């Protein structure tokens, strides 16, 4: 049986990868024709000004390709609620990002959705995911697994609050990280791959297959997103990936390890929080620029050096997460 699962995993990965390679060139041309280009911030790094006009909203391609691959190649598994919940989070958060991206490219400014509206929409998707999971997953409970101790603790009414913040914080964290060519794409591939291992350990093979289809589409997207990027994923892609990762953590029952596996995303988010709090309370900046990947750029690191270093750190976080999860 596992041999068949392995073949399905490989098939979904390869078809997702090839499909994005085939579709993306046309998508780039079409987005250029629509003038859906990146709008760089005035206060941003000078080296990033040249990126202005690069097509954005590329997340549409890898989201749609992944969903198409999963639903066509795995039609016999469509009675599994896990597949539809993963799609709901992936597409739901992607739609929030799409609205934000669309407003930005149409207005030709960085003013997309107002933060309150954006967070409200993210909250709606997060709450809806929990409600759907509770009603459609047999035996869905409010217990969390404690790494190393091999015990589960029922946290009751705190669990939906935890899930809510996993989705809202996770999607925003990936969004903040998406500031360098290939950075969020590579880190997402690493983190998703870790959850593939947990899904296989739990014998939740449909989750593993879906996740690897997404990894395949991201690898295809990376061919166009690595420096110098020919297209950016936009909020469409980054919010979708954050929501997808949170859903994987919930469905594989690795809520606590989600923090570690997404360690780089957490660091990026904390750097912004620290910077804002420090400036508002002390009038001083802790970092030369936040998120922290820009800090290293201002120290003289090349964009590729920062990206590869952060990928390596993400890989280490993933390995530690796997070790803690299996011990």
UniProtKB/TrEMBL annotation:
Membrane-spanning segments: 6-24, 57-76, 82-104, 116-137, 183-201, 207-224, 231-251, 257-279, 306-326
InterPro entries: Glycosyl_transferase_4, PNAcMuramoyl-5peptid_Trfase, PNAcMuramoyl-5peptid_Trfase_CS
Cofactor(s) named in the record: Mg(2+)
Chain's role: Catalyzes the initial step of the lipid cycle reactions in the biosynthesis of the cell wall peptidoglycan: transfers peptidoglycan precursor phospho-MurNAc-pentapeptide from UDP-MurNAc-pentapeptide onto the lipid carrier undecaprenyl phosphate, yielding undecaprenyl-pyrophosphoryl-MurNAc-pentapeptide, known as lipid I.
Catalytic activity from the UniProt record: UDP-N-acetyl-alpha-D-muramoyl-L-alanyl-gamma-D-glutamyl-meso-2,6-diaminopimeloyl-D-alanyl-D-alanine + di-trans,octa-cis-undecaprenyl phosphate = di-trans,octa-cis-undecaprenyl diphospho-N-acetyl-alpha-D-muramoyl-L-alanyl-D-glutamyl-meso-2,6-diaminopimeloyl-D-alanyl-D-alanine + UMP
HAMAP family for this protein: MraY
Pathway this chain belongs to: Cell wall biogenesis; peptidoglycan biosynthesis
Molecular function terms from GO: transferase activity
Entry keywords, A to Z: Cell cycle, Cell division, Cell membrane, Cell shape, Cell wall biogenesis/degradation, Magnesium, Membrane, Metal-binding, Peptidoglycan synthesis, Transferase, Transmembrane, Transmembrane helix
Membrane topology qualifier: Multi-pass membrane protein
EC number of the protein: 2.7.8.13
Cell compartments where the protein resides: Cell membrane; Membrane
Family: Belongs to the glycosyltransferase 4 family. MraY subfamily.
Protein name: Phospho-N-acetylmuramoyl-pentapeptide-transferase
Signal sequence residues: none
């Amino acid at each position: 049986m596992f041999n068949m699962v392995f073949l399905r995993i490989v098939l979904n990965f390869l078809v997702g990868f090839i499909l994005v390679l085939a579709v993306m060139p046309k998508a780039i041309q079409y987005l250029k024709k629509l003038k859906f280009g990146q709008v760089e911030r005035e206060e941003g790094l000078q080296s990033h000004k040249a990126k202005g006009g690069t097509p954005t909203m590329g997340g549409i391609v890898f989201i749609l390709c992944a969903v198409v691959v999963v639903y066509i190649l795995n039609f016999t598994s469509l009675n599994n609620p896990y597949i539809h919940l993963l799609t709901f989070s992936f597409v739901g958060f992607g739609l929030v990002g799409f609205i934000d991206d669309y407003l930005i490219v149409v207005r030709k400014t960085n003013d997309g959705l107002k933060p309150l509206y954006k967070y409200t929409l993210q909250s709606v998707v997060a709450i809806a995911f929990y409600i759907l999971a509770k009603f459609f997953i047999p035996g869905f409970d409010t217990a969390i697994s404690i790494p190393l101790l091999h015990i589960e603790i029922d946290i009751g009414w705190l669990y939906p609050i935890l899930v809510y913040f996993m989705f809202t914080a996770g999607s925003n964290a990936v969004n903040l990280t998406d500031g360098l060519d290939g950075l969020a794409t590579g880190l997402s591939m690493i983190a998703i791959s870790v959850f593939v291992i947990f899904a296989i350990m739990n014998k939740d093979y449909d989750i593993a297959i879906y996740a690897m289809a997404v990894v395949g589409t991201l690898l295809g997207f990376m061919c166009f997103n690595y420096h110098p990027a020919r297209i950016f994923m936009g909020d469409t892609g980054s919010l979708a990936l954050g929501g997808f990762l949170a859903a994987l953590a919930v469905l594989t029952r690795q809520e606590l390890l989600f923090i570690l596996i997404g360690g780089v995303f957490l660091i990026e988010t904390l750097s912004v929080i620290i910077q804002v709090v420090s400036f508002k309370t002390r009038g001083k900046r802790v970092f030369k620029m936040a998120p922290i990947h820009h800090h290293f750029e201002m120290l003289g690191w090349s964009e590729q050096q920062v990206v590869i270093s952060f990928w390596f750190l993400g890989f280490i976080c993933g390995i530690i997460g796997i070790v803690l999860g299996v011990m």
